[in-house]
């Protein structure tokens, strides 16, 4: 009995978060017979095949979503395709995306991923790292939401130059305005999702001005406006150590851009790796859904072995953002059953199943669940 209720609880936690949406935000409207149009950017590596799987699932389940696909990948160095992609994202207000490789050896190649998030002002990146019962991991019972500032901390945007030969200067630039909006987003998210504690991750002991401002803004806001949410601050080194030794202590982690990137990858690793976790990117106008760790999985492309879970959870997040809650629950439950009840696992989490076997199983599960699934 106890294990049955634990399984039910875990199923409800799985893919259950909802991005906080401020009142008055203009959400994408359904058009033509209640259907939504979502921009699809397949990207590089496993992205294109994962998008085909998502389209197949949506078509089978009759989810009321049409996809407008725009090719944008690292082979195409033409800036026009980036502009087309941005226009499509602005027009539809919402996108689902595979990751685009960033070329290390090409000094002029600006990361398309960073550019899209920056130009659409998608300032909040949200990952939900939650343990899945049948996935073998060192720690159990993890349920952490990671919220990362997604647009500044300019050391992340590649603002750097060689002052004299052999001397490189990288600039980290932060603003009170952007710190305030990510801090506010985090507390509002905590309140809306019934979360109890926010941990702000920083390095204010060394970066006294930049990280000092981050910490001060978060701390002051917590005290003045959100006294019912527990607030704590943790230096990034300690946060990394605490995360790998006792991850269950964390509820929501609020982070500047670069620490957020690294800590998010650690947290994804703790619950089973890059194939499992989705990543939500939201701003005041647009939303973009992708995988949490943002790698391309190029070595796996075309082999039918990649784990599709992270991409499917991105599709669940997207359905929920569109207000299609019953469809989101149905897909989330079908995926959860494939991973736990049918215990179908790809190689990255110790199994030997093909990607397509998981997709077929998800479709079978959708076929046997009622259309109006019980709301979580
Ligand atoms: P990668 O794409 O080689 O992936 C890292 C590891 O995770 C590999 O062993 C891969 O096989 C595995 N993996 C990834 N997705 C998987 C899935 N769905 N199922 C099973 N295994 C999976 O990562 P790498 O080398 O870090 O990045 C490749 C490209 O992605 C680079 O161009 C990089 O710039 C870009 N990128 C990576 C980010 C990251 O967080 N790692 C962030 C932003 C960009």
Strand order of the largest sheet: 2-1-3-12-11-4-5-10-8-9
Mean pLDDT: 90
Shape: globular
Gyration radius, in Å:
20 Å
Describe this structure in words.
InterPro entries: IsoCit/isopropylmalate_DH_CS (IPR019818), Isocitrate_DH_NAD (IPR004434), IsoPropMal-DH-like_dom (IPR024084). Pfam families: Iso_dh (PF00180). With 376 residues, this protein is an alpha/beta fold. The protein is built from eleven helices and twelve strands. The protein has a ten-stranded mixed beta sheet, with helices on both faces. Strands 6-7 form a two-stranded antiparallel ribbon. Strand 1, helix 2 and strand 2 form a beta-alpha-beta unit. The longest helix has 17 residues. The model has no long low-confidence stretch (mean pLDDT 90).
Task: Name the features.
alpha/beta, 376 residues, 40% helix, 17% strand, globular, single chain, 10-stranded mixed β-sheet
Write the layout of secondary structure elements.
Layout: H1 2-13, E1 36-41, H2 47-61, E2 65-69, H3 79-92, E3 94-97, H4 112-119, E4 124-130, E5 143-149, E6 160-164, E7 167-170, H5 176-192, E8 197-202, H6 210-225, E9 230-235, H7 236-245, E10 252-255, H8 257-270, E11 278-282, E12 287-291, H9 309-321, H10 325-340, H11 355-368
1,4-dihydronicotinamide adenine dinucleotide binds next to loops.
Short note summarizing the structure:
The protein has eleven helices and twelve strands. With 376 residues, the protein is α/β, with parallel strands linked by helices. 1,4-dihydronicotinamide adenine dinucleotide (NAI) binds next to loops.
């Amino acid at each position: 009995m106890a294990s049955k209720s634990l399984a039910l609880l875990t199923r409800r936690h799985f893919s259950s978060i909802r991005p906080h949406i401020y009142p008055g935000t203009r959400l994408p409207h359904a058009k033509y017979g209640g259907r939504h149009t979502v921009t699809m950017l397949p990207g590089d590596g496993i992205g294109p095949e994962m998008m085909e799987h998502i389209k197949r699932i949506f078509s089978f389940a009759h989810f009321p979503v049409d996809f407008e696909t725009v090719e944008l990948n690292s082979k195409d160095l033409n800036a026009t395709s980036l502009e087309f992609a941005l226009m499509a994202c602005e027009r539809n207000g919402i996108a689902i995306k595979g990751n685009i490789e960033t070329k290390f050896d090409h000094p002029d190649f600006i990361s398309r991923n960073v550019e899209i998030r920056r130009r659409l002002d998608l300032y909040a990146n949200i990952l939900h790292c939650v343990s899945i019962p049948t996935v073998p991991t060192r720690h159990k019972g993890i349920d952490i939401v990671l919220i990362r500032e997604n647009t500044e901390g300019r050391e992340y945007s590649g603002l750097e130059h060689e002052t004299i030969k052999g001397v490189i200067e990288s600039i980290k630039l932060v603003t009170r305005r952007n710190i305030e909006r990510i801090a506010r987003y985090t507390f509002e998210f905590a309140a809306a999702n019934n979360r109890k504690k926010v941990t702000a991750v920083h390095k204010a002991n060394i970066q006294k001005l930049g990280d000092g401002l981050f910490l001060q803004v978060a701390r002051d806001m917590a005290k003045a406006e959100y006294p019912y949410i527990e607030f704590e601050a943790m230096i990034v080194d300690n946060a990394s150590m605490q995360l790998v030794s006792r991850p269950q202590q964390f509820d929501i982690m609020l982070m500047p851009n670069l620490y957020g990137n690294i800590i998010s990858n650690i947290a994804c690793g703790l619950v089973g790796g890059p194939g499992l976790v989705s990543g939500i990117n939201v701003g005041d106008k647009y939303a973009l859904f992708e995988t949490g760790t943002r790698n391309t999985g190029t070595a796996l492309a075309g082999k039918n072995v990649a784990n599709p879970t992270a991409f499917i959870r991105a599709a669940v997040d997207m359905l929920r953002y569109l207000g299609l809650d019953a469809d989101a629950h149905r897909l989330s439950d079908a995926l959860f059953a494939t991973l736990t009840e049918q215990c179908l696992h790809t190689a990255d989490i110790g199994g030997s199943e093909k990607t397509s076997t998981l997709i077929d199983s998800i479709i079978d599960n959708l076929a046997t669940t009622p259309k109006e699934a019980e709301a979580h």
